[in-house]
Amino acid sequence: MFNKILIANRGEIAVRIIRASKLLGIKTVAVYSEVDKNSLHTELADEKICIGPSNPKESYLDMNKIITAALVTNSDAIHPGFGFLSENSKFVNLCKSNNIKFIGPNSSIIDAMGNKSKARETMINARVSVVPGSQNPIYDSEEGKKIANEIGYPVIVKASSGGGGKGMRIVEDEIKFTRLFNLAQNESLNAFNDNTMYIEKYIKNPKHIEVQILGDKYGNVIHLGERDCSIQRMHQKMIEEAPSAFLNEETRQKLGQCAVKAAKAVNYENAGTIEFLVDENSNFYFIEMNTRIQVEHPVTEMVTGIDLIKEQIRIAMGEKLSLSQEEVRIKGHSIECRINAENPANNFMPSPGKITALHLPGGYGVRVDTALYNGYKIPPNYDSMIAKVIVHGSNRKEAIEKMKVALEELVVGGIKTNANFQYSIMNNKTYIEGNANTGFIAELLE
Ligand code: MV4
Question: Residue 98 to residues 21, 59, 78, 104, 314: CA-CA distances in angstroms?
Answer without folding.
Answer: 21, 19, 11, 16, 21
